[in-house]
Structure formats: C-alpha cells, structure tokens
C-alpha cells in the first residue's frame, strides 16, 4: 500500500501535547509546533487495524502479554540489526525514559555520578537530577566534520561514574555510532566499572546508507554490563501508548527491575499497547520503508532552503532520528533572545539547544516529521523573520 505523508492532518482534537501544550511551553498557541519528538503522520495501517480490532472487542479487562510480543521484538532485531536478544531477558516497560530512570535508581545510589555526552536528549539531565544523582557531562566537540567525541575528555569524565547513559543513535545530533566508536566508549566504561544503559529508541530511523549497531553487539566482551532500551513507539508514532522493552544481560538484573515495577503494581500493559507494538514489529515495515525517504527529503529541503535563503542558519544533516540541529549562532542572539525570536518573530515552536547541552548558545532543534507543506510554511516564516532581523530587503 502507498502511504501519503503529504497529507496535512488536523491534530487539534487529537489530545496531542505537541499542539495542545503550546501555550504552556511557548506562552502562545500561535506557533507551528516542531518540537516534541512525535510525528504528524498517521501510523501504519496494520497497526491501526489491530487497534480497531482490539477496540471492537469491547472488553478491555486486565491484559496479558503473550510470548509472541517478545518474539516479535527479537525477530525485528534479528531482521533489522542482525542481533538476537534473548526473549527471556526482556522486560516490558512503560517507556524508555521511565525504564532508564528506574535503572538509575536500582543500579546507583543518591549522589552517584551519571555520565552522558552532551548535547543530548534533555530527559537524561532530568532523570539524573530528579533521582538525586550527579550529572557528569562529557561535552562533544564541534569540528569541520561535525560533532565528535573527545575520547581523552570522555575518559577523564568517566572516572568515578556509576552509569553511562548512551544515546545510540544520538538525539539531537543524529549520529549513528560506528562499532569502533562504541567499542572505544565501552572500553573506557569497562576500565572504570561503569554500567552502560543504551537508549536505542531511534535505531530504526537511519539514513544515508548508515547502519545501526546495537551497543551490546559491538562489545560482546562487556555484555554483562550493558542494558538496552528499545521501542517501536518512536519509529511508528505510538508514543501515546507508552510502551518499550528493556533487555538485560542477566537474570539478576532483570529480576531487580521487575520487582521494582511490581512493587508499584505496574507490571501489565494497557489493552492496546502490546497489540500495537506487536503489529508494528510484524507488519509495519512497509510503512517504515516509505517514511524514511520522506524524512530524508525533508532534511534535504531544510538544508537547501537555508543555504539559499537563510545562510545565517546552518542545519546539520542527521544520519538518524527525524530531528535537525540548527546552528543559529550567526544570528548573534543570546539564548533567551533566540527563543523569543523563534516564538514571537518566526512563530515556530522549536526546542532550545541549551536544554540539550546547558553550556551551549545559539542552537535550536527542529522536528521535521511533518508534511512538506508544514515545513515549507515554517521555513517561509523563518526566512521572513531572519530577513527582518538582518534588515534584508
Ligand atoms: C533518545 C530518546 N529516548 C527516549 C525518548 C522517549 O522515550 P519514551 O517515550 O519511551 O519514554 C525519546 C523521545 O524523544 C528520545 O529522543
């Protein structure tokens, strides 16, 4: 079946945080929302069909989770990443972020140091700080080739840390880590006895012929110290169903995690989430294969538009995710002024770069998982606002 990603869908009654929370986040509803990481596309038809079938059953009592769910996760990983995780080591979870927050609680103590590379998905800061742990930022460096790891700095920062939260592939920079890079990062963790928690939620959104490598597959020698978080929610736009899978290296760690969640009586899933996730893994590939070129063309559109009309803004070309990292430093605005400019002059709802890396100035994150027409409108507004700012005719 052919999917139409150009269709502009009215989400005003979709109970969408991306749309409904504009007033709360930006102080106005008058922005095109291109922030939180969900897509303005309908998901794959087989997923919709599976949920409609479930809805029509009309009985949504306490829900079981068949073994076929975990087998679907395993088969997906085998097919897409040539990695065969053990289904007996998988735990259901209500999202990657809640899973990671609980892993921090379970495998470190208050005050312990948690390492991650910045800029990074802002929740990494939140789950570290909200659990009373100490943030250790390893800052990536900007070079002519893009953002890179300074391994000497990473090794220095790793000393004394308990857990490394790895974003593989990387949000917001769209980096697909190579096996060699993963091996170097994990070797440093091994030297320091650090547990690695690998967030692989974006691992299906890969472009330009790159290949995702599951961290645990790249570094089998340290597999006993690597926990992997995966989900179909980012890939198939199912975040509102709150579902993910946490994959453990051994029974002891899995039991600790399961006991933690069971102690709050959170061990089942809602009636729709496992149905949707399993349909995604089993029947969603056709949709995904059509989505990826659409996103990739949106990346190219933004880059070409900026090069031609807004040279002060330099977007990256991400190899992963549907999020672009905009270098707006040539606008010469403070962080506060840049946010104000985007909201009130360009009328765009973007994520400020400093939320991903607190010492950064002059960056914004743009979500391009929307119809081209939405992006064209956004780029036109941005150009006009920058023209006025630069006093161009
Ligand atoms: C790197 C990363 N991890 C996790 C999440 C969210 O995961 P979940 O909704 O399963 O908690 C996101 C969402 O944007 C993300 O970018």
Protein model, in words:
Helices cover 42% and strands 16% of the residues. By secondary structure, it is α/β, with parallel strands linked by helices. It has 2 domains: 17-44 and 285-390, Aspartate Aminotransferase, domain 1; 61-283, Type I PLP-dependent aspartate aminotransferase-like (Major domain) (Aspartate Aminotransferase, domain 2), CATH 3.40.640.10. The strands form 4 sheets. It has a 7-stranded mixed β-sheet with strand order 2-10-9-8-7-3-4, sandwiched between helices. A 4-stranded antiparallel β-sheet has the order 11-12-15-14. Strand 8 (195-199), helix 9 and strand 9 form a beta-alpha-beta unit. Helix 13 (285-309) runs parallel beside helix 15 (372-390). It is globular, with a radius of gyration of 21 Å. The termini are far apart. The mean pLDDT is 97. Bound molecules: pyridoxal-5'-phosphate (PLP). Pyridoxal-5'-phosphate binds at residues 37, 95-97, 121, 167, 171, 199, 201-202, 231, 233, 239, 244.
